[in-house]
Amino acid sequence: MRRDSIFYKLFQQSPTLLFELLSAPPANAAAYRFDSVAIKEPRFEIDGVFLPPENETGTVYFCEVQFQKDEQLYERIFAETSLYFYRNRARFNDWQVIIIYPDRAVEQRDVYPHRTFLNGDQVHRVYLEELGEIRSLPLWVALMVLTTVEESRAVEEAQYLLSRTRTEATPTSRRAIMELVTTIVAYRFEQLSRVEVEAMLDITLQETRLYRDIKEEGREEEAVNFVTRQLTKRFGELPQAVRAEVGGLPLSRLEELGEALLDFTSLDDLRAWLTAQNQ
Questions:
Q1: Which residue intervals define the domain DUF4351 in the entry (predicted)?
Q2: Residue-range domain boundaries for the chain
Q3: What is the three-state SS of 169-213?
Q4: Which of 68, 96, 156, 233 could disulfide-link to 38, CB 3.0 to 4.6 Å?
Q5: DSSP 3-state assignment of 14?
Q6: CB 51 within 8 A of CB 33
Q7: Which residues, 6+ apart, have CB-to-CB distance to 137 below 8 Å?
Q8: Section 113-128 average pLDDT
Q9: Can you name the residues that pair with 81 across neighbouring β-strands?
Q10: How confident is the model at residue 233 (pLDDT cuts 50, 70, 90)?
Q11: Reduced to 3 DSSP states, what percent helix, strand and coil does the chain have, rounded to the nearest 5?
Q12: Position 210 confidence tier, pLDDT thresholds 50, 70, 90
């Protein structure tokens, strides 16, 4: 499952979700905004940055979602976050890092060189499998855990979350959560079509039409921003002509590009993909 885009959407829809994972969230958590940044020279990529209000000098929170073993993860995280904090020192008075793992087995083995950070109060390691059962968790946190459950349980747990969504969530949140649940299950069962996934989850025609209409009406700009950001993280600043071509794609093509770019190794791959769309 390509979880980067799922967690990006989760945090974009609910920036306060990150702070539900902390025992001591900031008092103004609701005012934080979520961003994703790339740092050049060297080019580092930070999964998520949670920024305090622009008129306040507060704490910046860095988030890393790590579902694969990386034996130099902490070296990279502490290098890139320190560089970002250094370059933006006037904006912040402190920093915190949250690393989200599916379980402890994925964590880097040699942590001794980083013992001061890892044993202090600035770095928080979250293991999704240890948060508890999906049915006992807050709705948005449960969505994160849904990405880790066994395939044999995925449909049942997704249906449960959808039933909770219909009674607990606001109309706006309900549409977003339904879309995310469907996307997560679609990734788990790639051999099924979107219609088949919706049928499996027992999503009604009315609900399907409702969130699809909202998606078509309001997501084009969001999709352009997301895809452009991911391409910039991979290849650096994009040529203006390429940015314009990406920005002119319809929503369906942007979604396809969001999937395809994960396999690109160079800017030439992107150009070839864009050329193929015009043929």
A1: 216-274
A2: 1-130, 219-274
A3: CCHHHHHHHHHHHHHHHHHHCCCCCHHHHHHHCCCCHHHHHHHHH
A4: 233
A5: coil
A6: yes
A7: 131, 145
A8: 96
A9: none
A10: confident
A11: 60, 15, 25
A12: very low
Place of tokens 């942007």: 254
- Residue recorded with tokens 């855990």: 145
**What is the SS3 assignment for 49?**
strand
- Average pLDDT of 158-187? 86
Give the full edge-to-edge strand order of the sheet including 92-101: 33-39, 44-51, 58-65, 92-101, 123-127
Nearest to 220 by CA among 246, 181, 194: 246
Distances in Å between the alpha carbon of 132 and those of 112, 117, 125, 138, 192?
Answer: 28, 26, 15, 11, 29
Closest to 105 in 3D by CA, of 134, 141, 130, 76: 130
202: left (phi over 0), alpha (psi -120 to 50) or beta: left
Residues 6+ apart with CB under 8 A from 20: 138, 140, 141
Residue corresponding to tokens 């002119």: 248
pLDDT tier at 197, thresholds 50, 70, 90: confident
Cis upstream peptide for 42 (omega within 30°): yes
Residue 205 pLDDT exceeds 70: no
